[in-house]
Amino acid sequence: MLDSVRVRLTLWHAGAVACVLLILVFATLFLLRRSSIKRIDNSLEDVANAFLATVRAELHDPDSSGRFKDSVASAIQEHTYRDISFSVFSVDGTLVLSSPAHPAFLESEMSRFYELRQRALANPPAHHPFRTLSASGHLYRGYSRLFDAEGKDYILVVLQSLHSENEFVEALTQTYALLIPLAVLLAGLGGYFLARRSLSPVVAMSSQAGRIGAENLHDRLLVRNSKDELGHLARSFNQLLDRLDESFQHQRRFVADASHELRTPVAILSGEAEVALSKNDRSPEEYRESLEILHKEAVRLKQIVENLFTLTRADIGQLPLTKTSFYLDELAADCVHNFRALAQAKQISLKCEASSEMPIVSDEGLLRRMFTNLLDNAIKYTPAGGAISVCSGRSDSFYAVSFADTGPGIPPELQPRIFERFFRADESRTNADSATGGAGLGLAICRWIAEAHHGRIELTRSDSNGSTFTVFLPAPEPPNS
Ligand code: ADP
User: Fold this and answer.
1) Distance, CA 447 to ligand 1 centroid (Å)?
2) Atom of ligand 1 nearest to the CA of 445
């Protein structure tokens, strides 16, 4: 039951209301009691003053006996109150006289009054003369006062029953005891209703979300109020679905494109093998020709599978960089050197220039693969008699290595897409000539390699005179800077 947010909110709400009410009740009772005690103390003091004034007046009244005990008796008679009693003690603790309504316990409680009296004697102005006493289930407020008469010290004790105050507090407590559980119950019901109302959009959202799966990933949650917290949650969830949807579509496209790319070489392989096996009387030259085609397609197939494998591993972060220290200009020169024979075969002039030494700490294998892809493209798309130049140098905090060719260039409207996976600017040509045509993955891999090294690759120029691809990689700080 406590697993439900609704129930938890209700309990919290009811608990908070109960705490607040209890604090209020205790504070009210405490303040009430304090103010009533203060009021009683003041009135006890006034009554004691009036009583003693009467005693003194009686002592000096020529018509009275002038005896102390008679004066006290007259004062007791004159000051008759329903809840108040007077007792006069001599300093040795003997009761001189007390009201008829003198509470029965007073005798048994004398020790406490002696204590009061002792304090009154020891330190008359400073002692606290008020005391609350309980006897036979009743509470009394007592006031003791030291006074002198006929040259002797006496103690006056005035007692007021707290019965009526207690009755009032008890009635109040009983009322609270009935009202507080009722208020807590109402608060709980109200809290439950509010929690139910405010959580109902969440319940609706969760059942909507539960219905969304891979097949209807384009469905979105209803945003009732885009400004409140739940609207914000629904929007965030919808944005998450957008990203998931995009990633699903991306994956689907990737798988479709990959299968499409793999289909052509596989079809050629199986077709060529079928043809070779269909005739029994083939010459060794014919077999060789078939095997050469099979080999070329197998190489192309291997290339595509390797590229796909690289990209998928890069996507899931399983292609860590193995960094070593080397010279980028030397790596570029070495790659160019490897392509010299291929360029010569196509009568393409190939040159490499470096403006300075370019020490770097990077993944040499991956950078070599990027340069090889770019040189491969340059040779692939440059017609016979053309020229390719590779220039490297430093520009600010980056090394720049550019690959310029005199190929046909890439149409301006296609240039923004050439780094996309499986994108080919000229499909008819690459498909027709499957030996040179790639799967449109080379530049996507180049972009990933550049970005994995915190650099970038750009098509810095492409027109009818040729194209230039430039790779920018972060360069270390020069030693003398
Ligand atoms: P591919 O394996 O098909 O060459 P890439 O990703 O390397 O795939 O290149 C994507 C497309 O960009 C190519 O199909 C080609 O149309 C175009 N392209 C790449 N390099 C050049 C270049 N140097 N000159 C002209 N077009 C190029």
Assistant:
1) 13
2) 6
* 418 alpha carbon – ligand 1 mean position (Å): 7
Both tokens of 446, joined, read 């180049």
Return the number of other C-beta atoms located less than 10 Å from residue 408's C-beta: 19
Q: Which of 310, 410, 431 to mutate to test the pocket of ligand 1 (most atoms within 8 A of CB)?
A: 410
**What Cα–Cα distance (Å) separates residue 45 from each residue in 42, 67, 74, 160, 285?**
5, 25, 19, 11, 136
Q: How far is the CA of 377 from the centre of ligand 1 (A)?
A: 6
Task: Single out the residue of 83, 3, 13, 12 nearest to residue 43, CA to CA.
Answer: 83
Q: Where are the alpha helices (DSSP H) in 79-162?
A: 105-108, 110-122
Task: Find the helix or strand (DSSP H, E) in which 325 lies.
Answer: strand 324-327
Name beta bridge partners: 144.
157
CA-nearest residue, atom 14 of ligand 1: 424
Q: Which atom of ligand 1 is nearest to the CA of 408?
A: 25
CA of 358 to the centre of ligand 1 (A): 27
Of all protein residues, whose CA lies closest to atom 13 belonging to ligand 1? 424
Distance 257 CA to ligand 1 centre (A): 16
Ligand 1 binding site (Cβ under 6 Å of any ligand atom) = 373, 377-378, 381, 405, 407, 410, 418, 423-426, 430, 438-444, 467
Gap from CA of 423 to ligand 1 centroid (Å): 8
Give the DSSP per-residue string, 27-70. HHHHHHHHHHHHHHHHHHHHHHHHHHHHHHHHHH-TTS---HHH
What 3-state class would DSSP assign to 229? Answer: helix
Cβ neighbors of 471 (< 8 A, separation 6 or more) are 370, 371, 374, 400, 401, 402, 446, 450, 455, 456, 457
pLDDT tens-digit profile, the chain (481 residues): 667 888 888 899 899 999 999 999 999 999 999 999 999 999 999 999 999 999 999 888 877 776 888 899 999 989 988 888 898 888 777 888 888 765 555 555 555 666 666 665 666 555 567 888 777 677 888 888 888 888 888 888 888 888 888 888 899 999 999 999 999 999 999 989 988 888 888 888 888 888 888 888 888 888 878 888 888 888 999 999 999 998 888 888 888 888 888 888 899 899 988 988 887 778 888 889 889 999 998 998 998 898 888 888 888 888 889 999 999 999 999 999 999 999 999 999 999 999 889 999 999 999 999 999 999 999 999 999 999 999 999 988 999 999 999 999 999 999 999 999 888 887 554 443 444 457 889 999 999 999 999 999 999 999 999 999 999 999 998 766 5
Closest CA to 187 of 25, 20, 13, 9: 13
* DSSP per-residue codes, 329-368: HHHHHHHHHHTHHHHHHTT-EEEEEESS--EEEE-HHHHH
